[in-house]
Amino acid sequence: MTAPQDSFVSVERHDNGVATVRINRPEARNALSMAIRRDLADMFNRLSVDAGVRAIILTGGETCFVAGADIREFAGAGPVEMYLRHTEVLWDAIGRCPKPVIAAVNGFALGGGCELAMHCDIIVAGESAKFAQPEIKLGLMPGAGGTQRLVRAVGKFQAMRIALTGCTVRASEALAMGLASEVVPDDRTIARAQELAAEIAALPPIAVAQIKEVILAGADLPLDSALMLERKAFQLLFDSKDQKEGAVAFFEKRSPVFEGK
């Protein structure tokens, strides 16, 4: 699977079931144009149904994740034009991907870049990473999850501070407040994301998918309803061959081989 030659989005597939999606527009600090959003959505839609892919890494490279949206594309736009773009459909391709998605963040993750990282399931941040929702400084507000995903990640008071001031959050602070999963040296960010992705890819895919689905769906449900959802998914897994393989391997004191069945 390859991207078109004129695309700013590429994918590298590894033998261990991991795919690395990279945004490569360094001259614009990987700013999210509509073309990049469409390419990302197309890429994630294809990876979502690719049985050979069990985990996905999303990165902008070694120096910059995504420094925001491409302001030139919306500075003079009207509300109907913005509505007709239906960018929420493009974002959903990432947010609703059934495979675990790990963001490897070095450098800036601002505005749409911060929102893009929050669409992922795990965020590995390099020590240089800087997160922000600076839309307020343009007379705007976040429009792709920068209020709703942010408050769910860090709570009301930190989300209010970040969104209302447009302040920059460094990697260590992001880790402390729950906006990052891990912080590593900059030259280890992508390597660490690859290690996590490989670890997850080696686990039973159906169980991995159910864990992701239940965590995301249950987060906005009343506790009793969320617990019921968890029980049903737990019970469902007893019909999988991977569950039986895991149990047999445990008793035989060997490493299990999971096939996603």
Note down, in words, how this protein is organized.
This protein is an alpha/beta fold. It folds into two domains: 9-201, 2-enoyl-CoA Hydratase, Chain A, domain 1 (Alpha-Beta Complex); 205-251, Lyase 2-enoyl-coa Hydratase, Chain  A, domain 2 (Orthogonal Bundle), CATH 1.10.12. Helix content is 44%, strand content 15%. The chain is built from eleven helices and nine strands. The longest helix has 15 residues, at 34-48. The two termini are 24 Å apart. GO terms for molecular function: hydro-lyase activity. One of its GO terms (biological process) is fatty acid beta-oxidation.
Question: What's the helix and strand layout?
Answer:
Elements: E1 9-13, E2 18-23, H1 34-48, E3 55-59, H2 79-85, H3 87-95, E4 101-105, E5 108-110, H4 112-118, E6 122-126, E7 130-132, H5 148-154, H6 156-165, E8 168-170, H7 171-177, E9 182-184, H8 189-201, H9 205-218, H10 223-236, H11 241-251
Helix pairs in contact: 1-3, 5-6, 9-10
Features:
261 residues, alpha/beta, 2-enoyl-CoA Hydratase, Chain A, domain 1, Lyase 2-enoyl-coa Hydratase, Chain  A, domain 2, 2 domains, 6-stranded mixed beta sheet, 3-stranded mixed beta sheet, 9 strands
Short summary:
The protein is 44% helix and 15% strand. It folds into 2 domains: 9-201, Alpha-Beta Complex (2-enoyl-CoA Hydratase, Chain A, domain 1), CATH 3.90.226; 205-251, Lyase 2-enoyl-coa Hydratase, Chain  A, domain 2.
